[in-house]
C-alpha cells in the first residue's frame, strides 16, 4: 500500500503526502522513527528521508508497537500498529491510554464493533474503514491535549463567539 502512496508537491492533486513543514519538524519525525526502532518496534516499511530536495519522509509503518511507545503525537508520515486480543477490555483501553486524542482509525467488518469502539475511544475524529478523510462540514479537533476547539463545520464558529447571558425580569421588581 505504501508503495502506491504518492509523495510530492502538495499542490498536485495526485499527491497524497507532502513534505514536513520545516527542517525542525523533519528532523523531529526522523528522530521519532529512530527512537521507535531502538525501543523494539518492528519497522515494516519506510523510515528514511525521501529524495534529495525538500523535507520529504517515506511513509512509515511500525508493528509490534507497545502502549508505552505510542505516547506522543508525531505529526509526520508514521503509523503505529498494535495487536490486541480483546476489543472491549484491551483495544479500547490501549487506545485511550494516552494524553492525546486527535483521531483514531477502526478497521472492521462488524458494524456493532465499529459503533461500540467509536463511542468508547476518546478522540475527536474516528474514521471507520478509511483514514484521513475530511470535509468542510465535519468538525475536526481533538480531545484531551490534542487541539484547541474544532476546525470546520458549525462547531468551528464557537472559536469566534463568546456566549453572554442577559436576564431581564418581565414583572415589576420591588427594589427598582
TrEMBL record:
Belongs to the aldehyde dehydrogenase family. Keywords: NAD, Oxidoreductase. The keyword NAD applies. It is found in: Mitochondrion matrix. InterPro entries: Ald_DH/histidinol_DH, Ald_DH_C, Ald_DH_N, Aldehyde_DH_dom. This is Aldehyde dehydrogenase domain-containing protein. One of its GO terms (molecular function) is oxidoreductase activity, acting on the aldehyde or oxo group of donors, NAD or NADP as acceptor. Residues 2-166 form the Aldehyde dehydrogenase domain. Its main location: mitochondrion. One of its GO terms (cellular component) is mitochondrial matrix. The keyword Signal does not apply. Pfam families: Aldedh.
